[in-house]
Amino acid sequence: MEYITLNNGVKMPQLGYGVYQTPVEDTERCVADAIKVGYRSIDTAQAYGNEAGVGAAIAKSGLPREEFFITTKVWITNAGYEKAKASIKQSLKDLQTDYIDLLLIHQPFGDYYGTYRAMEEAYKEGKVRAIGVSNFYPDRFIDIEHFAEIKPAINQVETHVFQQQKEAKEYMKARNCQIMSWGPFAEGKNDYFNNPTLMEVAEKYGKTTAQVALRFLLQSGVVLIPKSTHVERMEQNFNIFDFELDVDDMKKIEALDGGESLFFSHHDPKTVEWFMSILQ
């Protein structure tokens, strides 16, 4: 495993296991399988509804808590100081842990300044080892980073071969904030796994297109959390440390970047209206 050192000195595995869209009833089993494969970094969120499954799998693993790196996120319905503070307490309970390794604001909507104050307080109390944000585009990231007492350690954003976040990465790098990917496979959009470039490179290294795509992100300095409910794919996604893409192949994959989301834009008024509807 390779590690990233965050801006406060905390070390984080560069590869983890994500449970977005994992059914609540399957989460404990999937996380237990991932742990057996070798994953120690697990990414969940209040909005996923499966923190309890993650906590149960870790508690039953028999491994020391300190071997794990748990990430969760405060959802927009819990935005604001008081709600966020209560939600953090609930997340700790659901995860069956005394501390969260990384806590993020899930979306840049609602009273996220109040949320961040609650997170800073939890950090100072030792309930959280590192804090950050998710889905904060450069404009909002610069804003909250400027006013935050404890600077964001992570910004988790859509990052894959077709949206490499080149501009956003520069702003994060300048402010010593680590980029973390959600959707490293873009949920298969753009016929992801049959992309000719990825297939050509994969054949060269005797790897799958998925492994090549993950290796590209890894070598690009991105923290990634691929998700699968199948053990064999968990294993494939984990086995990306025994080869290295050469400079030419990195450039070939870099050229796939379209610079735009394959999902939605937080700058789109209709998208913002949808998020606001959740709060009503």
UniProtKB/TrEMBL annotation:
SUPFAM superfamilies per record: NAD(P)-linked oxidoreductase (SSF51430)
Positions bound to substrate: H106
Site feature (Lowers pKa of active site Tyr) residues: K73
Keyword Hydrolase found: no
Active site: Y48
CDD domains: AKR_AKR5F1 (cd19133)
NADP-dependent oxidoreductase domain sequence ranges: 21-256
Superkingdom, taxonomy of origin: Bacteria
Molecular function GO terms recorded: oxidoreductase activity, acting on the CH-OH group of donors, NAD or NADP as acceptor
Keyword Cytoplasm: no
Alphabetical UniProt keywords: NADP, Oxidoreductase
Record Pfam families: Aldo_ket_red (PF00248)
Alphabetized Gene3D superfamilies for the sequence: NADP-dependent oxidoreductase domain (3.20.20.100)
Similarity comment text for this entry: Belongs to the aldo/keto reductase family.
Protein name: Aldo/keto reductase
Organism name: Lachnospira pectinoschiza
Lineage: Bacteria, Bacillati, Bacillota, Clostridia, Lachnospirales
